[in-house]
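User: What would this chain look like folded?
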Amino acid sequence: MIVLERAGDQDAEQIGALISEAFWDLDASQWIIGDPADARRVFPEYFIHVAAAVLGGGGVVEWTPERDAVAVWVPTLATDPEPDPGDWDVVLDKVCGPYADRFRVFEGLQHAHHPHGVDHHYLAMLAVRPDRQGQGLGTAMVEAYHEKLDRDGVGAYLEAAGPRQRRLYERAGYRDYPGPYQLPDGGPSLFPMWRAPRS
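Assistant: Here's the prediction, encoded as structure tokens.
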């Protein structure tokens, strides 16, 4: 059985670095920032702010004691109000510079495809350090969290970053919701997926 620890506000910087390291090579990451040098400069700072926002907003961030994998969950109620993008726009401009609009497009499409009007937990990010990928670590983390959701009768939602990730999540009980969508300008597809709670 996997052992996980709950991250706190003080861990945002380390979480951001871990997510960045795991996400460098994703097609969506390269669509947002095509220049590798800029990506290595911008993404860590961006993910630090994302982690801080989730931790400060009541999200659940779990990671391994070795700090080689992290799962970022956002509990979402059917009655939650629409988020106010004002403050976040300021963060994007400051942190992402010339790439801020790409981030806005990416996040806007994510929001448009996100389920509304139903209680669920959103797996915003599952990041495993590259040298630990493919060893079942991420799957074990997700399945451990699913046990809690199943006890509470709550569904889960995510966007798989590509066909390989989609197949992994299918094995964990996720199904297409309703199907893939493509980033503009010939960008890659993302795969929204939903997991119904198991009794």
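The chain is about 45% helix and 20% strand. If you want, I can go into more detail on any region.
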